[in-house]
Amino acid sequence: MADLWNIDPIPFVGKQDVKEGLGFRYFQPDKIVSGKPMADWLRFAVAYWHTFNQRLVDPFGAGTAQRPYDTFTDPMDLALAKVDHAFEFYRKLGVKFFCFHDRDLAPEGDTLRETNRNLDRVVDHVAELQAESGMTLLWNTSDLFTNPRFEAGAATSPFAKVHAYAGGQLKHSLEIAKRLGAQNYVFWGGREGYENLWNTDLKREQDHIATFFHKAVDYAHEIGLDAQFLIEPKPKEPTTHQYDFDAATAIAFLKTYGLDGDFRLNLEGNHANLAGHTYQHEIRVARAAGMLGSLDANQGDKLLGWDLDEFPSDLYETTAVMWEVLDEGSIGPRGGLNFDAKPRRTSFTAEDLFRSHVVGMDAFAAGLLVAAKMHEDHYIEDLVVERYGSYDSGLGARIDAGTASLAELEAESLDVPQANLLAATRPDHLESLKATVSNYIVEALAQA
């Protein structure tokens, strides 16, 4: 078979040369870290939409991307060629998982029936190459936001015919998930929100999307789809307010509508930042609720306030993320790290697609190695145990158990001088704590 990318498989080169090169310095799939192969902690997935469809456009300029399949002009021929290029890309990069929206794979027709026919033809080819390669579908989803019909939402659309179309599209997408063995199925509410409250029935829209999710669960049971349902929170873009604003908002929604037993969260770093949170915060919130499902791996530019989908390279952030994952024991029951990221417009060559994924994979591999060293030393765990030690006995234990009354708390506090309260606490040394994490990054990677 012809070399579609004209790129050799990406090797592990170690730290022999710190200068630019097309090879992994930290990612070694078989390296044992905290009792498991690195590949088991880092179930990397390639995002079909950014990697093979994104032309590197932005709001201020046309696309710059140069791709080896650009010679195809017929839409279906192009769609089938992209599948061939995608599976060769997965093999050469050394990943085992991929993700896609339904509309990433095939062009739409004039009707949903025609669109489904186009999609099924491409899915047939995906299934063939999946069987040959052993690739796993980490998750798929429905694109219920790109087409102009979804200008006011899909499941939350004020127009019943649009809601119905979204349901029909979802049904076929769930059938594809079943056929391809998807481990998860994601809902990202790209336009599920409002632009202006004056013309919005907020409660009715939320009721509609909750019903939509319940129908998805019911149909999955009907067809025997064994996939974890996920919601991916995002605070803004494109609507003024999205109903899945952040992890806490999404969890509250799921619990309100009785969906928390069927859904977990798929979290993204750039979305966390847009919500005013760190990525670690969103993961911790999901963990605390027992609802961590999967992760999208990217980052934003702290100087820009929109969703840039940069490949992750911030080692402090990847260390924080992987510390949470190690503490949890896994990303989620079936979760992975999907690179919902694209190169910058100046990195427009086909080779840059490989380079950018290598950067992201190495950043998370490095973060895993650092987090493993931190867990090995028990530094954070011991710090937290000591900080909350006053709740382990006496009055603190009764507070923890919920048996201390307000009268008891008052009696404990009435005659205590204010100065004694500060003296009874311990300094947190937050600046030193941040420095210690940075020191771990330096020392753990020097030893890797």
Automatic annotation (TrEMBL):
Residues the entry annotates as binding Mg(2+) 1: E232, E268, D296, D340
Compartments in which it is found: Cytoplasm
Location of the Xylose isomerase-like TIM barrel domain: 90-286
Database matches in Pfam families: AP_endonuc_2
GO molecular function annotations of the record: magnesium ion binding; xylose isomerase activity
Superkingdom of the organism of origin: Bacteria
GO CC term, one of those recorded: cytoplasm
Cofactor: Mg(2+)
Catalytic activity: alpha-D-xylose = alpha-D-xylulofuranose
Cited InterPro entries: Xyl_isomerase-like_sf, Xyl_isomerase-like_TIM-brl, Xylose_isom_bac, Xylose_isomerase
Subunit structure: Homotetramer.
Family the UniProt entry places it in: Belongs to the xylose isomerase family.
This protein's name: Xylose isomerase
Lineage, uppermost ranks: Bacteria, Bacillati, Actinomycetota, Actinomycetes, Propionibacteriales
Gene: xylA
